[in-house]
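The record is given unchanged here:
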Amino acid sequence: MKKDTMVLKDGNCIDLEECSSLASIKVISESRLSMTEVWEKMSDENLKQVKIKNSNGVIVGSYENLTLVSETSTVQTDGTILTSFCLREKTTEEIRLDNLEEEQEIQNGAIVDLAEVVAGGVE
């Protein structure tokens, strides 16, 4: 049976269980290791652009600037792991802070490049 999927910014697809919502993205993993692999994909960078596709491949939801709030995992009787990832949209302030941090990284790189050019001319 085909499942709904969540498509992350980097193109990774995560199969979703029934009754999933942003506040409770439900995922079944075969092991703890595979659960942590899914968890690691839920980075702020990957959650900048998220699409939800139904079992027919039709986009039924499109989101930007999500963040992972929490995760709860339960080992089921068959040994699989049911994880519920709680996502939410970032606030305007969080988005502004992210943008400032990105701009600061760019400026820091430019300053280092300039310092190397200046130091090369002094020698």
In short: The mean pLDDT is 91. The helical segments are 32-41, 92-122. The longest strand covers residues 66-75. Residues 3 and 55 are 5 Å apart (CA to CA).
